[in-house]
Each structure stands twice: as C-alpha cells, then as structure tokens.
Amino acid sequence: MPKLKTLWRKLTGYSLFFPLTCLAIVLIINLIKTPTFFHISINNGVLYGFIIDILNRSSELIILAVGMTLVVAGSGGTDISVGAVSAVAGAVTIFSLVGSMSSDIYRIPYGLAILLGLLGGMACGAFNGFLVAKLRIQPMVATLILFTAGRGIAQVITQGFILYVRKEQFKYLGNFIPGIPVPTPIFVAILVVAVTLLVLKKTALGLYIQTVGINAKSARLVGLNATLIIFLVYTFSGLCAGIAGMIITSRVYSIDANNAGLNMELDAILAVAIGGNSLGGGKFSLAGSIIGAITIQALTTSLYAMKVTADQLPVYKAIVVIFIVMLQSAELKRMLHSMLNKHSIRKAGRKVA
Amino acid sequence: MNKEKEVLLTMRNIDKRFPGVTALSKVDFTLRAGEIHALMGENGAGKSTLIKVLTGVEEADGGEIHMQGIEHPIQNRSPQEAQANGISTVYQEINLCPNLSVAENIFIGREPKKFGRVDWKTINRKAKEILDRFQIHIDVTKPLENYSVAIQQMVAIARAVDISSRVLILDEPTSSLDEQEVEKLFNVMRNLKEQGIGIIFVTHFLEQVYKVSDRITVLRNGTLVGEFETNKLPRVQLVAKMIGKEFDDLSMIKNKVDLSKNQEKAGVILEAEQLGRTGAIKPFDLKIRKGEVVGLSGLLGSGRSEMSRVIYGAERADTGVLKWKGKKLVVNVPMDAMKAGITYLPENRMTEGIIADLSVRENIIIALQAKHGILHLMSRKEQEEFTDRYIDLLQIKTPDRDVPISQLSGGNQQKVILARWLLTNPEFMILDEPTRGIDVGTKAEIQKLVLSLAEKGKSIIFISSEIEEMLRVCSRMIILRDGSKVGELDEDRLTQEEIMKAIAGGGYHA
Fold first, then answer.
1. What are the residues whose beta carbons fall under 8 Å from the beta carbon of A323, sequence distance 6 or more?
2. Which residues contact A210 (CB under 8 A, 6 or more apart)?
C-alpha cells in the first residue's frame, strides 16, 4: 500500500502526468465509441485515419501554442492576437503572390512571398511586444488591438475579396507533397518544435524567459534586459502565428480575412493551460503545451466522429475543458485534501470519544 | 501624566510564521482606554503583521487577544469580525469610494432604511452631525474626491469611529499629509482619546510620536522590545531600541580587519561626485577604497538603500558622475555595474532577490550566466560544479541543488543569493540588509564572510538596521538622514553613541 502511494505521488509529481492523462482519456473514450478510431489506411498514396487527421489538424495549433507558451512564461500574459495575425500573414503572402485578383500565376517567387508573410507576422508580434515590454500595457489589452484590427488589416490587403491561388504547388504546404504519404503540416510543426527546443537547449533563452516571468525585478538586478526578452517572446509569437497562417491559407489555397485562424488564439491559450503551464508565467513545459494542443484537436475531431454537429461542438468541448482544468486546479486539490482530512479527524475524534 | 487607565485590549504571546520567516514571536501588546499608543519598529519588525493579526487580515499561529468586556478571547477571522468586536482600521491608502458622496461613504453597507428604501435624508443629516463632531464642516452630498486627502482621511476615521470603534488603528496616516493637516489630524486624535477610545498609531516619524503619543511599543525582528511611556523615553534611546543592540555570539569575531596600514596605500576604487536621483537621494560625494567595508547608516527611508541602488544602476542616477578606478563609469542598467565588477544584494530578498520557482542551481548561476550572455549557456556540468562548490563553501542547507529556492529557509536563501554574486567574482559588493530575518548563527557566518572578503581586497558597502552589526563589520560609516548624506564617521569615532546621535539628528528629546 505505501509503495503504491509513493509510486502514485511520483507519477502525479511528474509534470506531464496530467496533460498526458487528459489526452489518454480522450483517446480511450474515442476507442470505445468509435472502434475504428486508431485505424490507419493508405488511400491514393497518402495516409488516412482519425489519428492522422488529428495530428494534421493540430499542426497550426501546436505552432501557435509554442509561441504562446513562451509569451505566457515570459510575460505572465497571453497573446490574443495570434488568430488575427495569422490572417494578416496569410493575406500578405497571397496578395504578394497574386495581387488583388485570384489567379494561377505568381507575381513573385513563392519563397519570397512566404518570407514576406512571415515578416508580416513578426512585425505584428513586434508591435505587441513593443506595447507590452516598453509601454507596459497589459498583455490582454495590448494584443486586443491586433485581435480586432488584425482582420481589418487583412481585409485592407485583400481589398475585401477572398483571394484564391489556383496553383497546385501552393497546396503542398497545407496538404500533401506528391509522393509523401504524411501531411506536410505535421512536418512543419515538428520543424518549429525542434528548432524552438534546440534554441532553448543551446542558449540561455529558456532560463532568461523563466527568470523574467517569475520575477522581473530580480531579473533586472541580475543584469537581464527584461524588456528585450518580453519583446522577443511576443515577436516570436508573431512569427509562429505567421507560420500557422501559411498552413491555414495553403489548406484552402485562399485567404478569407474573416475566417482564417478564427478563434485559434483561444485554443492556443487553452493548449498552454491544459499542458499544465501556469498562466501566471514562469516555469513552462513546451511538451505540455504540445500535448495540450493535440488533446484539443483530438477532442474536436472525436466529437465530429461522434456526429456532434459543428454548432453544438462548443458545448461539449466546454464540458470536457472544464473537467480537464478542474483536474489540474491546485485549489480543488486542496479542498479535496482538507475535506478528506476533516473526515479522518472526525473519525479519529469518534474513536477517542 | 496619565494615571493607570483601564486596559481595553491585550494581545498575549502572539506568534505568526510565514514560510521561511518568523514574523512574530511571543509578542505582547496592551492598549488602554483613552490613550494614543505608538507602534514603532524598523521595516520587517512585525508592526504590520501585528496589526493584520489584530484586524483579522491574517490569522495568528498562536496567542490570545482579549477585549475588555468580552469574556472569551476574541478571534478575528476577518476585518468585519474585528469591527464587530470594536476594532476599526484606517489605512494609509484610504479605501473609500471616491466617486460616492461623503455621506454615502460614511454609511455605505449600513444605510438607514425607511419603508425598505434608503433614507437619504437621515444619511445626510447624520453624516453632517458626525463630521461636525470632528470640526469638519463640508457639504456631505458632494463626491468624496472633491476633497483633499486630509479630509478624505478624516472621513475614513469618522466612518471607522461611528461604526463601532473602541479601538482605532491608524496605519501610517500622516505620510501623505502636510504639516497643517497633520496638526489637524492630531487634534482629532486627541479628541477621540478624550472620548475614551484607544488609538494605535503606526508610523515611522519620530517627531510625530513624541508630539501625540502617550506610550510606545517597540518591536524588532518580530519580537517585543518593550513598552515605554513616551515622555520617559529619550529619542536617542528610542532609536537604540528600534535598531537594537543585541549581543550575541558574534562578539567573538575580531572587531575589524586591520586595514589602517594598507588603507593609506590602497587606491580609491569607487568614487561618486554629486551622484543623486531626484526624489530618492540628494546628490552625494563618496570615496571607497580597496578592501574597505563602508556602512551606510540611517533610519528607514533615510536614503541608505537609495544611495546604493543609484550606484548599482538599479535606479538610474540623474545627476553627478560615478568613477570606477579613476575612470568615469556610466551605469544605466545593473549590467553596466556588473561588468565593472560591482554586485548588489537587494534589501528585499523575497521581491528582488530570489527567483522563487527556479532551483538553487539556477538561482546561483543566473548572474554569471547573464554576464556571459545569452549565446554562451554554461554547460550543465559547469553549473553543477559551481553550485556544489558554493553549497559547500557557504554551507547552504538544501536537500539537493535542484529544489526550488523557495523551499529553503530565509537564511539559506540569502546564502544562495550571496553565492550568486560571489560566483561572478566581484571586486565591489553592495550588501543591503544581508542578515535581516535570518537566524543568529547564519548571521554570524555572513558577517565573518564579509570580513574575510574585505581581507581579500574586496570593497563592500554594508547596510544594516542593526548598529551592533554595523560596528562589527564596518571600518567607516556614512550617515544618512531624510534622503541625504549628512556625515561620515571614521574608525576612531565609531561608537554606538556617536552613530545614534548622528542618525537621530537634532530636535527635542535628543
């Protein structure tokens, strides 16, 4: 019994325990409800199946969550503009490719257009970073500006049209590259995660971000430039939003300023939270956020698989999210603990009596 | 002057612990009816904790509170309960609603009702009556924000007294008032005293204490120093009680490093010319030699911390120049000072020192890492070697190097911060209250460490509220008062008496 207890404590002490449990629960329910859930097949030379679909669809979310994790860790705030910023980046890329008319001819090289789109995302992020780090505006308020104005900017770029790129090659990024059975977005997500992890491992950036997020005053006194670090994490979040924007637009080979990346900022924040990261900043786990992102997408996909309609989806999602977040609430744990304690004290009291 | 009045409130053996710190230990406090009782002590002495325990903001870990006329010990679990027991508080920041009328503010939450509706007539009439009693004649239907801070404070007091109060706590009430307003407040206080209300007056202004209070209770390091009648306690002695003259096992430390010989020869390492910052520290001159331990001495708010912060760049100086080894040194941010070889251990360990969730290892290496730059991450092995070396050297008690620093005791946290700076191999260290709130043993260790560092040729600015400690480690002392440097005491004049006289300054009761 005591052995089990220590094992349990060890397990629950492991920081990824709860995120992984949440994901496992979602997957197990799926397996029961939809026996073919883990089935993977090859059709037309590409992989098909719920699992592949979840990984594919969660790619953008993973990328956004990576940026969001660093924003949360470094500034104790959230970047709610990422959805709109990905629309801006998408608009920049597609506009520079085809101009203000849908077309099948590129005006400039594809690579250059992608670069411009990413720069657009980074510029938006830098703007947020300037507001938060330099002008000390609350992150929620600062990023609210682009949250609302971002789609307007995208509209201005596209001049109100939904612009299409009618070229097969443009679809590769968001779908499949001919001859490769795995969806391209998965590769992009892996690349973003890998590069980020590499930078965090090889430089002191991770330590700096945590230090600033935990105690900006101490950080300054040990010689760190807290302003610069906060600026950088927002800029990076903008870059991530840009990359996500590239995938989103490529999936539908068009830019719809009103709908590209809609509500994704909320899922990204949720992914960070489900990943066991404190939204108050400080210590973070990138792996947790990634698991969180996959969990959210798994939830969405499986609800669809259970024939829940799109308009009812948020209700079910909300119920599950409440459950997941409660599982991780320290306050709830304390309440349960003290309830148990009281119970045992009462028991002991009775024994004495 | 006042004969023994009846006791209104007694607090006995109050204990309060926070993680890593003992805030109060067996503190007694007695308040009599119709007296103004000043509660004094330096920062961290436990004044505000005692008040919080009394008003139910914090729960005590031990001890009893008795209120006259109530049979059982009272237990205040919230400010509301305290109020029900007759204890009201007016805080430094007035917590009323500025956009409501004066009358509304007085009666908010307990509005007189007539036929189930708020009876505005009565509210306004009564509010006027109440304020008239305080000699305040204003339009009570106007919003509170129309009036000065002083009036707002009076309104807060009027409200507090009207609600219930037999005990009124005024927490730093005068800090935002001008002299006339203070005088007015004192009249109100004397008036209330006549009515038999007991007033606890928390302040750090010595003169005001002597002007208005009947008794003084002094706390230091969370313990009771004593209760005194104001007119029998000279000012210098009060200062002595506040900053303490503990004699502990430290007296065995040899008094000072014998620097007199090589000091003549040793060059000036740091020099300040008219360095200052508006609103924090008036322009000052300063010369510090190699291997010297210089104390900055003065009461809280005298500018002793501000002086060191300006040197380190924690606050940017707006006048004067700093010279490092004879050359001009521009310090805009702490990193500029760090690069020169200056380090700073801040006064407030919790808010400016530790990085709570990070491990002991990360807390130790962070400053050196910052100096190396973001691209040159120290290898894990290197980090661990450094950490282990300092855990060993300073005998930091920690389960292992990777537990969060917040799990360590206060003294060990402080050692970690010291290790952080020692690791950067500084030539000049600023230590602001390095021994505050830590146990006597560790205190002695830190003092020894300071002396041995000086022997190795490092220069140190040492700040402490405890004069004893300053005498033990400093070879020279700079005296500050009211935000400016007022003098220096050389080695041969370093005695407790001289220092206290210099700190307390002129004025009556001296």
1. none
2. A73, A282, A283, A284, B355, B357, B358, B362
3-state secondary structure A47-65: EECHHHHHHHHCHHHHHHH
| Helices marked H in chain A | 2-13, 17-33, 50-57, 59-75, 82-98, 110-129, 139-158, 184-202, 205-214, 216-221, 226-251, 264-274, 286-305, 313-328, 330-352
pLDDT over 90 (residue A341): no
Q: Number of residue pairs across A and B with CB atoms under 8 Å?
A: 77
Interface of A with B in 207-246 (CB under 8 A): 207-208, 210-211, 214-215, 217-225
What is the nearest CA distance from B460 to chain A, expressed in angstroms?
17
Q: What is the pTM of this model?
A: 0.74
Question: How many CB atoms within 10 Å of residue B96?
Answer: 19
Q: Give residue-wise pLDDT tens across range B286-305.
A: 999 999 999 998 877 788 88
DSSP-derived secondary structure letter, B6: P
CA dist B31 to A65, A244, B223, Å? 58, 67, 17
Residue range A198-231, pLDDT digits in tens: 999 999 999 999 999 999 999 999 999 999 999 9
Here the tokens at position B463 are 């700040």
Backbone angles phi, psi at B201, to 5 degrees: -115, 110
CB of A188 closer than 8 Å to CB of A239: no
Pairwise CB contact (< 8 Å): B358 & A210 = yes
Sequence ranges of the domains in chain A: 45-330
| Amino acid at site B435 | T
Residue A229 to residue A74: CA distance in whole angstroms: 7
Structure-block tokens of residue B118: 């708020």
CATH 3.30.565 fits A45-330, yes or no: no
B366: nearest CB among A202, A222, A283: A222
